Amino acid sequence: MTAALRFDPIRLPSECVQLRKEVRAFLAEEIAAGTFSPFKPNREDTDVPEFSRKVGAKGWLGMTWPKKYGGHERSFLERYVVTEEMRVANAPTRRFFVADRQSGPVLLKYAPSTSRWTSCRASAAANCASRSA
Predict the structure, then answer these.
(1) For residues 92 and 46, what is the distance between their CA atoms, to the nearest angstrom?
(2) Which fold has domain 14-124?
(3) CB within 8 A of 19, min separation 6: which ones?
(4) Which pLDDT score, from 0 to 100, does residue 16 have?
(5) For 71, which of 4, 42, 61, 122 is 20 to 30 Å away at the CA?
(6) Cα–Cα distance between 118 and 128 in angstroms, integer?
(7) pLDDT of the residue at 24
(8) How far is CA 9 from CA 5, 6, 12, 85, in A?
(9) Domain locations along the chain
(10) How many helices (H) and strands (E) does the chain have?
(11) How far apart are CA 17 and CA 39, in angstroms?
(12) pTM of the model
């Protein structure tokens, strides 16, 4: 017999609720401007450098990283909120998702401090591309 998984409903903290509203408004503006269409398949694999720079300017890249490396020292829950909204909207995230969530944390942990400073600051500003084809 298989038991059904049951999760207690949760309420997001107020800062996450506000962040979700900000991200949704930003994405709605970008969709209205024609930056991307949420209805095209595999849109998240498209490279849109200007969109990535805008996401970086909003402070939504490197959210959990230390400030001295270009991060914002925000919570993983806040980063999750941004990630979830980007995925729901099928936003073009190819340029920054790998750097933000995989390469950046590895560099922060293992790279020499000069490499961390240069690479992570560029990634957090979306001034470099991470190509995982």
Answers:
(1) 5
(2) Butyryl-Coa Dehydrogenase, subunit A; domain 1 (1.10.540)
(3) 78, 81, 82
(4) 97
(5) 42
(6) 11
(7) 98
(8) 13, 9, 10, 19
(9) 14-124
(10) 6, 0
(11) 25
(12) 0.78
